[in-house]
Amino acid sequence: MQQNQNNKPQMNMPRFNMNWIYGLVLLALVLLYFTQGSEQSSVRTETSYSDFKTMVMKGYADKIVVNKHSNSLEMYVKPEHIRDVFHQGVQQTGKSPTVTVAIGDVGQVEQFVNQARQEQKFTGKFSYDNSKDNEFFSSLLMNVLFFAGIIFVWMFIMRRMGGGGAGMGGAGIFNVGKSKAQMYEKGGDLGITFKDVAGQAGAKQEMQEIVDFLKNPQKYTELGGKIPKGALLVGPPGTGKTLLAKAVAGEAGVPFFSMSGSDFVEMFVGVGASRVRDLFEKAKQKAPCIIFIDEIDAVGRARSKNPAMGGNDERENTLNALLTEMDGFGTNSGIITLAATNRADMLDSALMRAGRFDRQIHVELPDLNERREIFVVHLKPLKLDENLDIDFLARQTPGFSGADIANVCNEAALIAARHNSEKVGKQDFLDAVDRIIGGLEKKTKVMTEAEKKSIAIHEAGHATISWFTEFANPLVKVTIVPRGRALGAAWYLPEERVMQTKRAMLDEMCSLLGGRAAEELFIGDISTGAMNDLERTTKMAFSMVTYAGMSEQLPNLNFYNNSEYSFQRPYSESTARQIDEEVKKMIGEQYERAKQILSEHKEGHAQLAQLLAEREVIFADDVERIFGKRPWTSRAEELLEAQQRAEAEAMAERRAKELGLQTKDTEPSGEPGEPREPENPGTPPENN
Known about the structure:
- By secondary structure, the chain is α/β, with parallel strands linked by helices.
- The chain has helices at 18-35, 49-57, 82-86, 90-93, 106-118, 132-161, 201-215, 218-221, 241-252, 271-286, 314-326, 349-352, 368-378, 390-395, 402-418, 426-438, 449-467, 502-512, 514-522, 531-546, 573-600, 602-615, 620-627, 635-658; strands at residues 2-3, 9-10, 44-47, 61-67, 72-77, 98-102, 125-128, 182-184, 230-234, 256-260, 289-294, 335-341, 359-362, 475-479, 489-492, 617-619.
- It is elongated, with a radius of gyration of 44 Å.
């Protein structure tokens, strides 16, 4: 209830809707249909002609109606004699119960009625019912009106469902075979060009050629060449495949049809193929244009080699229609089909052939320089600290896709706002990377001193092994702060290598086993904290033996991925036994190597574990003070040396801010809330 300007209450009345009228009409028709001919709700019973004459002579008859068409009559019984005839009261029989009698000659009935009148046995009304024809036509009319009303309401509902109105957008049962593609009359309406796509120089170069085909096709056709019919964008998730397709449309300025592969799939048989035909029919009217099908593996998966007998595979029918439209008897001049997928190995070979998708453009994860370009794009809307080093951010995010980098920038801004910072600084980005890789920091998780010490020994084992192995990734920091499902982690800055050598893979395997080896050596018991390390180690060992041919007993052999031939393995049982033995031998050797390295540097490991248990987070310079300079240096480590100490100082300053302390130029020894530097690098600091 609302109040108007005169402070009078005003009721919120529901708005009028024509659907109410349609519903009332339908309800009236249904009630009329089921109540027609039943005006008399009284009881009817049949009897013989002799019983009829007896009841009339007893004075039971109130009215007699003769129907010549059916050779029958109806006798209405007087209310006072209802119980005598029906043996029931008025409440059970109704006010006007009747007795139906079959007759042979109407003239005899008239004589009998006249005789009863003379004897004063019947004084009621005697009449003939000639309304049979009228009843027939009225009944027929009522049936026709009833079914006509149902058909009218059904058609009205179907029109609404079928998208008769503009608000439905053509998505209904009658338009189920229509394409759901979203069309942009001009690709420039998307507002995306190649300037908005950072990195991916090779992919953009190939896509630029497609733009030239659309803008100036005569340049290529005059020499006898044909414009490519399609291009398939292949790459991991989040690398910008969809963004590249939109950029092509924006650069070319041609109509752009965009839809997902799942939009073709429907529960109705034949709908997917119908939508494919409708899509290309619309595209022909707008040529030259671009059709973009995202996640095409939803409809373009390889067809089954053993289809079910008598079955109907809707997905295969849709794929067949797509194959025909892309390169069949019809001409699709001026239509370029772009598609994106991260599962190209599952696509049908007929879809991948030249003439349909002439080009496969690989959109890979960005390298160091490309990550820097992506950071520049996503950092534009942020208020950044003047000292922020974008090159440092690019080095801290190896293996990140463009979507991951966008997420890092957003998380950094949220973290800075959470700390009431006016600008987004380097530490915010480091915290964002930790948040994305390791998960949310669990500050409320309670651990006992024994558990904390065990985790510190485990993580210190990883750090020690990686420090004394040549090809291990450079260490960034070690933490025992729980994040996600991990109780601790060692953070590295992996070098981006084009290929991996056997020595490098063995060093990485040894580093992964360092945590379990440290538990066995310095605790005397092992725990479940090394499950992830063992999983990664086992997968690496199997790939080295079965795919890379790096085994001593099975050298230079590649047992290819046999997922296509699931009925048998591509090697015998004896070979499988050899593979198992080689994997066990390889992991066992690296485990013994890890224990040997830890035994040689057990004093430094103990100091590192103690420092880690006290501070919870230590950095590479802390490890260097204990073990000395790493015997092997790399380009990545040289880049790290300049920023490690600044990172530690930034974290100390952040902790001081959280505790409300005043930061000074020099760190006072024993200041609460800040890590205390050891006076002697060879000995761990004392507990406060």
